[in-house]
Amino acid sequence: MNNIVNSLFNSYSKNNMLKILDFLIDDVKGIYAEWHPLGFIYIKLFQDKNNDYRLHIWPKGVRSFNKTQYPIHNHTYNIKSLVVSGKVGCEAYLIEKKANSNKKLYEVHYSNLGTKLVSTDEFVEVEKSNISWTNAGNSYKIKKGDYHQSVVEQNAYAATVVKNYNKSSNIKPRIIVNDNDKLEYDCPTEKIENDLLLDKLKELKNRLKNNL
């Protein structure tokens, strides 16, 4: 499967994407999947020396019950996101340090139990610079360190295959929090039951086969 996943970023093939889904469906008990705090289903595909590959699914309607209300964040690596179903918006933001702002930077700490947001002493002003929409079969990129959020409407469906690469140790993963005096904010890992995961993988396969 690894070579097929990697090939998607050179030339997208719906048939190859269907092969990946068949592999995941057949091995659903061996897949690591969870509800991401930003609201989508996060599925690990594979990781090599330089890259990390994932499948993200935004179902219609109810998503993560643990969804954070703070979606604007950065990454320590570059991202190439290939939209395989629906459409995804990427909102980009500019930030500037400002002592009297009500928005604050929190560092993101990862563990086996989930993620923890830890307060810094940096207050910032945030300005949305643009939003770009990408349809199925196309991809978009996010530079490491850039603040952004992904947008999929609540009544819409979308899925992406994501490649993370060129990780930097000089950038800290951070998220922007509004009006919050808490020193820490916990986002416990929310695993997905195999039956639900299987249902969502089959739904994505059906959507691809029927061009939905």
**Which structural category fits the helices and strands?**
alpha+beta
Average of per-residue pLDDT values: 93
Strand fraction: over 45%
Beta strands, count: 13
Protein described:
With 212 residues, the chain is an alpha+beta fold. Helices cover 17% and strands 46% of the residues. It contains three helices and 13 strands, in the order ααβββββββββββββα. The protein has helices at 2-8, 14-26, 194-209, and strands at 33-35, 41-47, 51-58, 78-85, 87-97, 103-111, 114-135, 139-142, 147-151, 158-165, 174-178, 184-188, 190-191. It has a seven-stranded antiparallel β-sheet, covered by helices on one side. Strands 5, 6, 7, 9, 11 and 12 form a six-stranded antiparallel β-sheet that branches. A hairpin with a 5-residue loop joins β1 (33-35) and β2. α1 runs antiparallel to α2. The longest helix is centred in the last third of the chain and has 16 residues, at 194-209. It is globular and about 55 Å long. The two termini are 24 Å apart. The mean pLDDT is 93.
